[in-house]
Specification:
The complex is a heterodimer. Chain A is α/β, with parallel strands linked by helices. Chain A has helices at 56-63, 95-102, 120-130, 136-149, 165-177, 195-211, 223-229, 247-252, 257-269; strands at 18-27, 30-40, 45-49, 71-76, 79-80, 83-86, 89-92, 105-108, 183-187, 215-219, 232-237, 240-245. In chain A, 36% of the residues lie in helices and 25% in strands. By secondary structure, chain B is an all-alpha fold. Chain B has one domain: MetI-like fold. Chain B is built from eight helices and no strands. Classes of the chains: A alpha/beta, B mainly alpha. The complex binds adenosine-5'-triphosphate and magnesium ion.
């Protein structure tokens, strides 16, 4: 692959928090993402919508480096995510570099994935203590502050098995935030929840949007929520961005036929 | 001879044998747990040399009989300049043999920790070692503990074979007493009961206790 077309670092003045540059992902012969270009500005909340299998989760997982990429380069805060410089060229990054880059990205999963053998507080302290090497007292203060923010401080000494889905997801958000990531990723964080507790998780995300200057990428099936809180909505179709724009425009006046079809289909379903 | 008289006469020898059996059991269990952990992790390693070593160990010790392994370690290794006393050769053989089965338990348990746990640890930017030690192994331990209960009972029974290289364990004493008194039913009957008591009233309750403690740690009580 010719890497010379990709800068070693994004220049000052053209440094979105996240940039996908010609990113391609395939599983065998199946191309899941095709030559994807996507920028997310610092502090921006971008929502990804689209039909099942269109590659939404894959976009987030590549950014979390849970999936390798087959072509192109992803930049986070101007630095290549899975490549590093050697002799003036970009080469695949080593484990150490990857780990450092990964620490600037936080992810929340559909099924929470809290550590079952740790309490809510311990879950939130694990990364800061073990990875960032924060002193325990400091990590505890930080974790307690975040647990208060997500409304889970009363349950801080409970294990996940004692918490409802909505409560677990809020702890998971606090756990990711405790790493002080530059970018937060949310992959259908309300899909596994009972309808009556979805609100407690969306409230937390709204609060993040309102009170923090975090860069966020969110995949969701809740169109109303996406319309409310996003700065921009991207409609994915078959591994490509079919249409993107401000939520009012994309939901109120979609330009592409496929977007219209998708939106009316989800409206009928919901 | 009535049984109480038999016990009064030979009880102390059975007791001595039982103590040696217990020692063999504990040391063999430590060997088994250690090598099971190493080989179980080794079999999942990305390094082919480590993985190969683990596979060869597991295959050899699972694929051949414990008795033959015991004889090899005690009678054949000296030919290569490795001399072990019979006590060490005894628990080492039993431990290595059971450890090979334990390795499969370790590997299976690690593999059955949900993928989401690996990914969550990875997303926190944990190093592979930290992830294994802090996130995966504690959960794998809870998964494999019940099977280890069974395996340790097997290990206890396996220690009886060390009598064949003259380690003075419970079985050895039973055989000696049988040879000098011809009271087979009493001699082997007592051994049977003592083995049963060790298994049923020491090993099993201990493992149950561990399982309960583990469940508490997972907040599942
Ligand atoms: N590990 C994998 N191996 C093979 N194919 C995969 C793998 N992971 C994802 N895919 C395929 O990649 C495509 C995109 O998957 P992805 O999970 O990104 O879709 P999605 O938009 O998140 O869908 P959903 O709304 O159902 O979550 C799908 O066709 C999926 O089958
Ligand atoms: Mg998905």
């Amino acid at each position: 692959m010719d890497m010379s077309a990709y800068p070693l670092e994004l220049p000052e003045g053209d440094r979105p928090m996240v940039r996908f540059m010609n990113v391609t992902k395939s599983y065998g012969t199946l191309t899941v993402l095709d030559d994807l270009d996507l920028d997310v500005a610092e502090g921006e909340m971008v929502t990804v919508i689209g039909p099942s299998g269109s590659g939404k989760t894959t976009v987030l997982r590549m950014l979390m480096t849970l999936e390798t990429i087959n072509g192109g380069v992803i930049y986070v805060d101007g630095k290549p995510l899975t490549h590093m410089e050697r002799d003036g060229r970009l080469v695949p990054a080593n484990e150490r570099y990857l780990r450092e880059m990964r620490a600037s990205i936080g992810m929340c999963f559909q099924h929470f994935n809290l550590f079952p053998h740790m309490t809510a507080l311990q879950n939130c302290m694990e990364g800061p203590v073990q990875v960032l090497r924060l002193p325990k007292a400091e990590a505890r203060d930080r974790a307690e502050e975040l647990l208060s923010m997500v409304g889970m401080i009363e349950k801080k000494d409970q294990h996940p098995s004692r918490l409802s889905g909505g409560q677990q997801q809020r702890v998971a958000i606090a756990r990711a935030l405790a790493m002080r990531p530059k970018v937060m990723l949310f992959d259908e964080v309300t899909s596994a929840l009972d309808p009556e507790v979805i609100g407690e998780v969306t409230t937390v995300i709204r609060k993040l949007v309102a009170e923090h200057n975090l860069t966020m990428l969110m995949v969701t099936h809740q169109m109303g929520f996406a319309r409310d809180i996003s700065d921009r909505v991207c409609f994915f179709y078959s591994g490509k961005i079919e249409e993107q724009g401000p939520p009012d425009q994309l939901f109120g006046n979609p330009q592409r036929e496929r977007t219209r079809q998708f939106l009316s289909a989800v409206k009928d379903a919901g | 001879m009535p049984i109480w008289e038999f016990l009064a006469t030979y009880g102390w020898r059975f007791l001595g044998g039982a103590v040696v059996t217990a020692e063999q059991f504990i040391l063999a269990a430590l060997v088994a747990i250690t090598v099971a952990l190493l080989a179980g992790l080794g079999k999942l390693s990305g390094n082919w040399l480590i993985r190969g070593t683990a596979v060869v160990y597991i295959e050899i010790f699972r694929g051949t009989s414990l008795l033959v392994q015991l004889y090899w370690i005690f009678f054949v290794l000296p030919l290569f300049g490795i001399n072990l006393d019979k006590f060490t050769a005894g628990f080492l053989s039993v431990g290595l043999n059971i450890g090979a089965y334990g390795a499969e338990l370790v590997r299976g348990a690690i593999r059955s920790v949900p993928k989401g746990q690996w990914e969550a640890a990875y997303a926190l930017s944990m190093s592979p070692t930290k992830r294994m030690r802090r996130i995966i192994l504690p959960q794998a331990l809870a998964i494999m503990l019940p099977s280890w209960g069974n395996l340790l009972i097997e290990l206890l029974k396996g220690t009886a074979l060390v009598s064949l290289i003259s380690v003075a364990d419970l079985m050895f004493e039973a055989k000696q007493i049988n040879a000098s008194t011809f009271l087979s039913a009493e001699a082997f009957g007592t051994a049977l009961v003592v083995y049963y008591i060790l298994a049923r009233f020491l090993v099993t309750p201990f493992m149950r206790g561990l399982e309960r403690a583990m469940a508490r740690r997972l907040g599942r009580t």
